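Sample entry (232 residues):
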Amino acid sequence: MKKITLLIVDDHPLFRQGVADSLSLESDMKVLGQASNGDDALDLIRSLKPAVAVLDVNLPGVNGQQITRQITQEKLPTRVVLMTGYDDIEQAIHAALAGAAAYCSKDIQPKTLMGIIRDVAEERYIFGGRVLTERELQVWVSEQMEGARRSYSEPGSPFHPLSEREMEVLECVVKGMSNKEIAGLLGISHQTVKNHVTAILRKFGVEDRTQAVVYALKHGWVPLNTDIKPQE
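Predicted structure, serialized as tokens:
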């Protein structure tokens, strides 16, 4: 029987070891390694190519969402189960957009996590406590986004306190792109991107990029699958 190869990533040693020990007892699973931060996790994913990586969302340095986006961009074969201690729908949407195969709370039962891993290894997706196909996941994300718009948007077209260029930068940020990547795509300098991001955070009244993404998703300002064309 072919085993599901795994990487466990969490910055809390006791939790990380507990997950690894529980999964190692399963006859169809094999833990290839562990990591406590995002940089080490990416190095191990690139070298070991585990079938599934179980990632904590809130990691020091490169966080779980950013790791997931990098895996997607590099087209690595590893599928991602994102775990969080602060379960909310906006973060789940962000996880799906980043390319995660599953999103779940860290307080789930070990047997539930094992089931999620097996489903993910079989090319299925787990969001909102449901087992989904790729097409069903797209529908789920669209439904959640529409619900966010209804809940948080003003009637009619929402007021945009951002310039056209700031909106372009925001769309890139929602996609999980780095400042360097945004600069290359939009044909502007790295410092100009930083200035735009700073302006977006100030106008939204938030402290970091993740909060800006959640704010934008809640208000329905950034549509799904927005294509931004690089300048010639």
